[in-house]
């Protein structure tokens, strides 16, 4: 069987949404509306049940419910669906992949098993993914470990991963020194994709790599525009904002991302326990950056904005009052 990598473009690790007192019920209506907005604004694909989708807190039944909505909403529009299927065991990973394939996923995302990482070396990790390939024919993208663990993926190791029949890509950690070399090595190919999560100084479209950014939940148009940016001006703007500590919070912490999402878009809610409700220190850091997320940076194609009022949650005033903030559609 011949496998193709996910197509070039912008990908978003989507949020999961909840309702009821303890967030015990999936909010499938909000999830559908969110996916419709992402697809309308040009994202090439979405990833379900990642860190930002609160993957560890989503049951098998709920995964099926979310995936069914994603397939119904996105398949007719040609938007790619990736599903996080990582687990500590080969058996559970393969079962998640089987369920994902049955539900309509195009690809799986897989991470290195971390529970026994101290007892694994690169050869063990390669053999693990090779065995995954024997258990499941769903094509998968490997998530390289971050720089704070002992295992790191060199360009040579990623080249070995590419030899596994249905291993069709690798997501590189932010700020990895190997990104440029790896991206250039695999540039232009359709059989193996390099994903990056931070723009850095890599031109995704030039090298035909894939850009996956959590901030796309709030500003998908900007992420798409960056990918298509021919002269680097959008890159300069995004880098200037992303290098601030506040936006790094939003881009790397699901609680901050959901808080900003709720304030800017009017929906998002909170996370499932034990993830906390955003504390006052966090909201005080995030609030000042919201105009940047809701203004020209977010593009007026998404919303009509003639001013923004950052309000105090305790008063319930401001952000969504008529004439100030009007979400599209």
Keywords:
single chain; alpha/beta; TIM Barrel; 2 domains; eight-stranded parallel beta barrel; two-stranded antiparallel sheet; globular; disordered C terminus; 4-hydroxy-tetrahydrodipicolinate synthase activity; Dihydrodipicolinate synthase; lyase
Distance between the termini: 42 Å
Overall structural domain count: 2
- Number of DSSP strands? 12
Low-confidence stretches: 296-329
Proportion of β residues? 5-15%
Radius of gyration based on Cα positions: 19 Å
| Category from helices, strands and their pairing | alpha/beta
Order of helices and strands: EEEHEHEHEHEHEHEHEHHHHHHEE
- Helices, by number, come to 13
Any idea of the CATH class of the largest domain?
A: Alpha Beta
User: Main sheet: which strands, in order across?
Assistant: 1-4-5-6-7-8-9-10
Overall helicity: 25-40%
The CATH homologous superfamily name of the largest domain equals Aldolase class I
Reported CATH architecture of the largest domain? Alpha-Beta Barrel
In round numbers, the mean pLDDT is 82
Main sheet attributes: strand count, strand direction, barrel closure: 8 strands, parallel, barrel
Fold-level CATH name of the largest domain: TIM Barrel
Q: Which geometry do the CA atoms define?
A: globular
Protein name: Dihydrodipicolinate synthase
Keywords: Lyase
InterPro entries: Aldolase_TIM, DapA-like
Pfam families: DHDPS
């Amino acid at each position: 069987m011949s496998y193709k990598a996910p197509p070039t473009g912008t990908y978003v690790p989507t949020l999961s949404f909840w309702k009821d007192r303890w967030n015990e019920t999936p909010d499938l209506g909000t999830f559908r509306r969110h996916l419709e907005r992402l697809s309308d604004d040009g994202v090439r694909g979405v990833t379900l049940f990642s860190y930002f989708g609160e993957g560890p807190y989503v049951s098998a039944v709920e995964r099926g419910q979310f995936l069914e909505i994603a397939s119904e909403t996105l398949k007719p529009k040609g938007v790619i669906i990736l599903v996080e299927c990582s687990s500590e065991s080969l058996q559970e990973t393969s079962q998640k992949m089987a369920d994902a394939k049955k539900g309509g996923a195009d690809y799986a995302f897989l991470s290195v098993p971390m529970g026994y990482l101290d007892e694994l070396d690169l050869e063990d990790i390669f053999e693990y993914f090779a065995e995954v390939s024997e258990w499941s024919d769903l094509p998968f993208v490997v998530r390289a470990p971050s720089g704070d663990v002992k295992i790191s993926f060199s360009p040579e190791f990623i080249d070995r991963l590419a030899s596994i029949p249905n291993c069709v890509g690798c997501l590189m950690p932010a700020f990895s020194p190997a990104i440029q070399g790896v991206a250039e090595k695999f540039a232009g190919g359709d059989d193996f994709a390099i994903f990056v999560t931070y723009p850095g100084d890599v031109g995704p479209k030039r090298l035909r790599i894939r850009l996956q950014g959590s901030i796309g939940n709030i500003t998908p148009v900007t992420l798409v525009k960056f990918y298509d940016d021919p002269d680097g001006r959008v890159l300069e703007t995004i880098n200037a904002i992303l290098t601030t500590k506040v936006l790094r919070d939003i881009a790397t912490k699901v609680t901050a991302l959901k808080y900003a999402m709720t304030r800017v878009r009017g929906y998002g809610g909170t996370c499932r326990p034990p993830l906390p409700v955003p504390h006052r220190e966090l909201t005080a850091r995030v609030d000042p950056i919201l105009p940047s997320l809701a203004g020209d940076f977010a593009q007026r194609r998404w919303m009509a904005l003639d001013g923004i009022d950052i309000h105090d949650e305790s008063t319930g005033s401001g952000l969504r009052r008529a004439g100030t903030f009007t979400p599209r559609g």
